[in-house]
């Protein structure tokens, strides 16, 4: 355990037990960063009430005991800092430099860099990306893709078993007209259009014939029937359509360094054969009932207008299945077949009601047992500068590959003054462009809306991808210039300057930031931690020369070790977020 906040929490809990008895050891010590010391513990205020004593007195008693406590994992005995009672009963805690330096040196020697790897791996199923084949893959899907991929990376990193599920919208009535349109324009032309990301134009062309041409309309409807029956020739055409579409999705994934592969595709079509059985079973068991001809589940606690119970409809009155039916099948499959301990749905915030009704319905059915955690990581909308859903300047929707092209071009402009050959320049521009787009999605809380703004996300200062990439590349250049391999910079770390101390103290929080991101599905907290780390490094680098001739040998070794630890934390952290780091920048 390296995070000072966790170490201090444990020390204070021990002190509480020593002072007031074991009953009090589970009180939250309320450790917070402090203006006047490294941390403050606010527990005496709430405990004063419980003990009916003055908080200041309680605080003094904790302080007296605290100085006798040895923190976990520390060999030498004694509390590694000073404690002061202040104000109405705050405990101000300042850690010893030697303790901070010792933990930082240990962290550098730890192959996991202070990240706890679990010895009880959970199976974590993550549903993310999930674009629709019949419609365009839009910026909203980009965000669920980027956030979901970061969550997949972090769970793998901490030792969990991750099962990625790309729940493609690849089935349903629109595919009748999509397949007929494919026959009309010819397989080759259709494939070329779809592979280039033209699904929207394709869909619109099919749709307008469907609406205006009775003969096409009849064919499309007939095609839905043969598709539902999985008639071989129809399936062949469906596969042609899907393969071309997926090949476009893969282009976007590759460009962005998304870890999804074809193996992870588990689209709506996969569940099609299960739907009848899902409905039959739920109906037989009385979980679902017929209401106005439709088969519905009424999970408790969901009401609509005039307090009417809200239906979760799994079969329409015309016998058709819908989104809810498929999602009931996904839950059952993920629990029973994939053996999920935790299921994370990374999906638009607008689907919040659907998701909570789904979980409630699945709990009723016994398909989502209590020990399986299901959560909806709600993704907020990405807006244009006009505050509406992001499209393009002309108001037309934009192809994602074109958006990524624009990111590359703009990133190239940002680094235009650098003296690199064309190939290196293109490589850097690509990393910066993709890093900027990805980091913009990851640095704000996943459920908040934000305005898509190239200028802001590409800025070299502030909480942006390029700033963190630049900070990382700059540390690499220190090692290049010094002719030192970062792996050889092992310290020991000794702290002299306040900027060294602040950086080291910050670095110790890395393991907690990673754990928190995995536990609470909050990539933006890790992003904020990395940004704070890079800022602390900037202050350190401005104040503490590393390679200058007049720097004493032990100081140089310590500062190189701090650089190496910062580099490892930034590289690992950015990799967990899926943000690439160019070698130089
Ligand atoms: N294809 C859906 C959409 O674009 C998202 C599917 C999410 N996953 C799920 N199991 N419902 O809105």
Automatic annotation (TrEMBL):
It is found in: Cytoplasm. Its EC number is 6.1.1.19. Keywords: Aminoacyl-tRNA synthetase, ATP-binding, Cytoplasm, Ligase, Nucleotide-binding, Protein biosynthesis. The keyword Disulfide bond does not apply. Residues 468-585 form the DALR anticodon binding domain. Residues 6-95 form the Arginyl tRNA synthetase N-terminal domain. PROSITE patterns: AA_TRNA_LIGASE_I. GO terms for biological process: arginyl-tRNA aminoacylation. Its main location: cytoplasm. The keyword Nucleotide-binding applies. GO terms for molecular function: arginine-tRNA ligase activity; ATP binding. One of its GO terms (cellular component) is cytoplasm. InterPro entries: aa-tRNA-synth_I_CS (IPR001412), Arg-tRNA-ligase (IPR001278), Arg-tRNA-synth_N (IPR005148), Arg-tRNA-synth_N_sf (IPR036695), ArgRS_core (IPR035684), DALR_anticod-bd (IPR008909), Rossmann-like_a/b/a_fold (IPR014729), tRNAsynth_Ia_anticodon-bd (IPR009080). It catalyses: tRNA(Arg) + L-arginine + ATP = L-arginyl-tRNA(Arg) + AMP + diphosphate. Pfam families: Arg_tRNA_synt_N, DALR_1, tRNA-synt_1d. It is an enzyme of class 6 (ligase). Belongs to the class-I aminoacyl-tRNA synthetase family. Monomer. This is Arginine--tRNA ligase. It comes from Planobispora siamensis. The lineage of its organism: Bacteria, Bacillati, Actinomycetota, Actinomycetes, Streptosporangiales. The gene is argS.
